[in-house]
Write a structure and sequence with these properties.
The chain has 81 residues and is mainly α. The chain has one domain. It is built from 4 helices and no strands. Helix 2 packs parallel to helix 4 (66-79) and helix 3 (47-60) packs across helix 4. The longest helix has 21 residues, at 2-22.
Length: 81
């Protein structure tokens, strides 16, 4: 019985840790805390376009940080891609 309880607790902690690591990957751009990269992106494109571009990069490169996606989208915009 104790082993089952321990197993359930381990699974719950693992799920909570995974959820924590997943972070902000699904939230819209406007919902994030302001940063210089976010402000720069929003100066270049509309919030809807920014969300679409970030979603596209998330699909191509899953598992990266939010900073990475912002930096990549801005880099591509500067290069005219």
């Amino acid at each position: 019985m104790l082993q089952i309880i321990v197993l359930i607790l381990i699974m719950a902690v693992s799920f909570a840790f995974w959820f924590y690591l997943k972070g902000n990957s699904g939230k819209p751009l406007g919902g994030f805390r302001s940063s210089p990269l976010k402000r720069e992106l929003l100066r270049r494109v509309s919030p809807e376009t920014a969300e679409r571009l970030i979603a596209s990069e998330r699909a191509k490169h899953p598992g990266k940080s939010e900073h990475w996606y912002l930096d990549k989208v801005i880099y591509d915009l500067k290069r005219g891609r």
